[in-house]
Amino acid sequence: MSRKRVAVLISGRGSNMAALIEAAKDKNYPAEIALVLANRPDAGGLATARAAGIATEVVDHTTFGKDRAAFERTLQAALTKHRIDIVCLAGFMRLLTADFVSRWPQRLINIHPALLPAFKGLDTHKRALEAGAKIHGATVHFVVAEMDSGPIIAQGAVAVRDDDTEAALAARVLGVEHRIYPLALKLVAEGRVQVVNGRCLIDGMPVPDAASIISGE
Ligand code: GRF
């Protein structure tokens, strides 16, 4: 089976992108990172991608003003040019329209630093601490038009500690992100994830319990 060509879309440091690049170095991994695309020319992850010999593109959203359609047309053109099969959002801080999302059914995935559907949006670690959550974590999901929604492909959990700070919790969740994103992309690239009634099945079975991979770190 030929490897799927993956684009990773970033806005910042790109540590999840780096985890995907690392996983894809294994010749048996079913996907190759064919493109890293940033919406900000100063995204730190671009240098990491270039150093790894991966093609990069910048589609700077600020040059499109309020014209989201034009931004997304340019994005789509870059993905087409690089013959992309699967798109991974990894800290990509732009909302995508329903029109764009509908072009990538079950081929557009995102990582969110919380156990969805809890704590959609920003500042998830701070909000989890404020809420007194005892379990927190990260979710990889298919993207749908509604933000931080869509069928869950993988979750990983961490126990929240009494003396946790936002930074300490964020670091432990990030460690989990770097494990579940390569795992989720592998499953999608192998065609093992099916969406039935809005939920993912993996090899026909429900997604494993996040508690089974609670991080001991
Ligand atoms: C991650 O926590 C990701 O879940 C969130 O933004 C952060 C991006 O970090 N959406 P990085 O750029 O992958 O290091």
What is the straight-line distance between the termini? 36 Å
**Largest sheet: spatial strand order:** 3-2-1-4-5-6-7
Cα gyration radius (Å): 17 Å
Oligomer: single chain
How many strands in all? 10
What is the percent of helical residues? 25-40%
Q: Roughly what fraction of the amino acids lie in strands? A: 15-25%
Can you summarize the main beta sheet? Answer: 7 strands, mixed
Topology pattern, helix = H, strand = E: EHEHEHEHEHEEHEEE
Structural class: alpha/beta
* Secondary structure tally, helices: 6
- Rounded average pLDDT: 95
Question: SSE layout and pairings?
Answer:
Elements: E1 4-10, H1 15-24, E2 31-38, H2 45-51, E3 56-58, H3 68-81, E4 86-89, H4 98-102, E5 108-112, H5 124-131, E6 135-142, E7 152-159, H6 166-189, E8 193-196, E9 199-202, E10 205-206
Parallel strand pairs: 1-2, 1-4, 2-3, 4-5
Antiparallel strand pairs: 5-6, 6-7, 8-9, 9-10
Bound molecules: 5-O-phosphono-beta-D-ribofuranosylamine.
Textual characterization of the structure:
- The chain has 217 residues and is of the alpha/beta class.
- It contains 6 helices and 10 strands.
- The chain has helices at residues 15-24, 45-51, 68-81, 98-102, 124-131, 166-189, and strands at residues 4-10, 31-38, 56-58, 86-89, 108-112, 135-142, 152-159, 193-196, 199-202, 205-206.
- The strands form 2 sheets. A 7-stranded mixed sheet has the order 3-2-1-4-5-6-7, covered by helices on one side.
- Helix 2 links the parallel strand 2 and strand 3.
- Helix 1 (15-24) packs parallel to helix 6.
- It starts with a strand and ends in an 11-residue tail after the last strand.
- The model has no long low-confidence stretch (mean pLDDT 95).
